[in-house]
Amino acid sequence: MNAWLMAENAGYTTGGRWLVERADLALQGGALTVVIGPNGAGKSTLLRLLSGELTPQRGRITSLGAPLAEVPAWQLAARRVVMAQSGRLGFPFRVHEVVALGILSIGRRLPRTERDSLVEASLHSADMLALADRDFQTLSGGEQQRVHFARALCQLEAARRIEARQVLMLDEPIASLDLEHQFALLDAARALTRRPDSPVAVLAILHDLNLAACYADHLVVLSRGRIAAQGPVQKILDEALLAEVFGVRLGITRHHGLPVILPQARRVAGA
Amino acid sequence: MSPEALRETLHGGQAGSGRGGVVAILTMSRHRRALFWAVLGSGLLAGLILLSLFKGAIALPAASLLQTLGSLIELGRLPDTREALILVNIRLPRTLLAMLVGAALAVSGAVLQGLFRNPLADPGLIGVSAGAALAAGLTIVLGETLLAPAFGKMPFAVLPVGAFLGGLGSTLMLYGIATRAGRTSIATMLLAGVAMGALSGALSGFLAYLSDDRQLRDLTFWALGSFSGASWTKLAAVAPAMIAILVAAPFLARGLDALALGEAEAYHLGLPVQRVKAAAILIAAVAVGASVAVAGMIGFVGIVVPHVLRILLGASHRLLLPFSALGGAVLLLGADIVARLVVAPAELPIGILTAAIGAPFFLWLLLRREVRSFE
Fold first, then answer.
1. Extents of the domains making up chain B
2. Quick one: B65-71+81-367 is in which CATH superfamily?
3. Does domain A5-237 have CATH number 3.40.50.300?
4. Are B30 and B312 in contact (CB under 8 A)?
5. In angstroms, rounded to a whole number, what is the distance separating the alpha carbons of residues B41 and B19?
6. CB of B13 within 8 Å of any CB in chain A?
7. 20 to 30 A from A208, CA-CA: which of A98, B161, B221, B278?
8. How far is the C-alpha of B44 from the C-alpha of A243, rounded, in Å?
9. Among the listed residues B78, B30, B86, the one whose alpha carbon sits nearest the alpha carbon of residue B54
10. A179-231 pLDDT, tens per residue?
11. Is B65 exposed, middle or buried (0-12, 13-18, 19+ CB in 10 A)?
12. B367 touches chain A (CB under 8 A)
């Protein structure tokens, strides 16, 4: 059976350097996959390859068995939804208008009342309904991130009527969020993978190792363009891997079987 | 609506229940506001049209318009009066041309701003008009020599085509220079626009040396912009293309809205990004080329009109594009009336007038830090 989204030996090079060298990855509904790795490891490039934004120069990436380049943009928009890292806008759009951009293409045939209620429900899920009429440009970074999450949810929900096998890609979705909203967003993402009818496949790039360990069903560790390790958190996340990939020697304890990384237990390299 | 009021509404209705929800109310109030401005704008335009027909170096009494109309209906031809001739052969084409050019320039501004994701893009500011004017100048000076043997006299319709190609060429070059790997650098765009505008200006100046007296007068006219040469011939040459782009532009609204997020994001949303960009460039080039061909360089309409409309109606291109057409027509028709009246019986080149209004407006924009996206 074809994975919903699959990278086989995929690589992308620019300026004489392989940003992603060889990536093998399969995304399947019901799993939250978390990608971690140091700066410049190729996390965002991997996500941009998987979203179809970049075309791999080596290997291939397929959506339900078809190479991404052969799937028209509108159809791909039903199968995968992307929340990218920077989300600045050049114009003073209102918050609810930004969220409605999510269904600009995929929901164009829906009646207006339905579009409005999709936008409303998405704003509600991202806890942004109270700011629905604010100028997006005047929001804080964290609030803007929540609006983009709402936009992604809106597209996802509208597209579900067309395609049940959906992938949601989040590039550092909680980078500017406060603690409460970090949990809220990741909880929402996990809930999507547990949806009884048509569970979603989620791919998230995170920096916080503890949150990654806490939420990942499948952990992917990137290092210098290569996948250094992937698998269930309990199996792959250990001190040796962290030392090798991040160059930092950290202490790891276990809490209910899950690894807990303690910055307090950092040992200076070479000591 | 304040956050408190929104929360109130939310507690009244159920979240996500559609009709009666917060978002439904917001969409509704936007539609109502759009309707209000549409009615007001149309009324204003109608008033300006009447003013434009009656006022000028020679004031025409309302009675003469009625008389002309009556005669046209009764006899099927125009009365042989001076008033009727002025009205039908001078004022009417001029009025229509000012409206069309205003609409086309404002729409091209809105489209270029959407394409470049920046409210500072204006065909005059980023050298597109200068490119079109250069091509128009080339057509005047060289076209005569090249085409005269075949046609005897250069047909006027060649001019808009030349200006269009000039506008298209400069837009494509600018986009190519400012965009790397799907990202448009605004600083590069503005600087490249300035450089290309200067280059086009220099080449146009060089053309002035090559041209004879009559050509020189034509070239000067391009530099300042004016509707004083309006005629049915000119109108007929550019109206079809202009009306076509005014009708086509609103279909770009969805694509330009998506592009506001960025090219990659627009693709993620399911838009055929390359096609949207190509259509935007084509529409802007046709609008600017046709405008420059009949009226010369008229600056700042493309930046002032969309900006004011974004304040009144919001940023969505679905309203912005059709309203830009209306707003541009109102602004330029009004400016033309002023240009005809302030120094009557002579008249001011309209480009001077729009620059006198537009440049301070532009500085005020910068002062208000309205422009956030200077990357």
1. 65-71+81-367
2. ABC transporter involved in vitamin B12 uptake, BtuC (1.10.3470.10)
3. yes
4. no
5. 30
6. no
7. A98
8. 72
9. B86
10. 999 999 999 999 999 998 889 999 999 999 999 999 999 999 999 999 999 99
11. middle
12. no
CB atoms within 10 A of CB A80: 27
What is the mean predicted confidence (pLDDT) over A117-121?
94
| Per-residue pLDDT, A63 | 92
- Which residue in the block uniquely carries the two structure tokens 């603690």? A179
CB B91 within 8 A of CB B53: yes
Strand partners, A205: A35, A171
Burial code of A199-211, b = ≥16 C-beta within 10 A, e = fewer?
bbbbbbbbebbeb
| pLDDT score of B215 | 76
For B95-108, what is each residue's pLDDT tens digit?
Answer: 999 999 999 999 99
From the list B16, B27, B262, which residue is nearest A121 (CB)? B16
Task: Please report the residues numbered 13 through 32 in chain A whose beta carbons come closer than 8 angstroms to any beta carbon of chain B.
Answer: none
Interchain pair B16, A102: CB under 8 A: no
| ipTM, 2 dp | 0.92
The label of the residue with tokens 């969220």 reads A99
Q: What is the pLDDT of residue B1?
A: 44
Q: What is the mean pLDDT of residues A233-248?
A: 87
Task: Write out pLDDT tens, residues A77-107.
Answer: 999 999 988 778 889 999 999 999 999 988 8
Report CA-CA distances (Å) from B110 to A86, B60, B121: 24, 36, 8
CB < 8 Å to A78, chain B: 270
**From A95, which residue of chain B is nearest by alpha-carbon distance?**
B23
Neighbouring residues of B103: CB distance < 8 A, sequence distance ≥ 6: B242, B246, B324, B325, B326, B328, B329
B369 touches chain A (CB under 8 A): no
Q: Which of B7, B10, B310 sits opposite A92 (nearest CB)?
A: B310
Domain spans of chain A?
5-237, 238-271
The pLDDT of residue A227 = 93
